[in-house]
Amino acid sequence: MLLEISLRPLNKSDVNSIMEIMGGLIGLGLPQWTIDQVVGELNSGSGLGAFLPSDELAAFVLYKRAFDHVDITFLASRNDLQNRGIMTQVLRNLFSHETQLPFWLEVHEGNLSARKFYEKLALREVGRRPRYYRDNGSAILYSTSI
Predict the structure, then answer these.
(1) 9 in the Ramachandran plot: left (φ > 0), alpha (ψ -120 to 50) or beta?
(2) Per-domain residue ranges of the chain
(3) The architecture CATH gives domain 6-143
(4) pLDDT per residue over 107-130, tens digit each?
(5) What is the pTM of this model?
(6) What is the rounded CA–CA span in Å between residue 52 and residue 63?
């Protein structure tokens, strides 16, 4: 059953909530972002958040428009709300509003659940960056088609 959420653009007042969700990802081999990096990302790009009726941030996507594509730079859901369809709603909404350019994202080759999720959303593997991560894991590049 899908949770009731509302979607809205992220702003600087959401930074602490973003950091809290990112903090729940420690131990997954991801680089730790700082508050300054998140603020910089919001200043130079955009973000879309999914909020519960209590106005708590449930999931978010940070992204940047480039000349010929849109880069998804970070996306995450609260640990206790994963596998509830929230990120599917966020990404489908984002993809439906940005129809002129393809979306690009990368994921660690070992993150099989994320890869399966992206493929379910019709993203396709378009490349690899060998030994991209600290553990020498490769980055798998995914893209939507337009």
Answers:
(1) beta
(2) 6-143
(3) 3-Layer(aba) Sandwich (3.40)
(4) 999 889 899 999 999 899 999 999
(5) 0.89
(6) 21
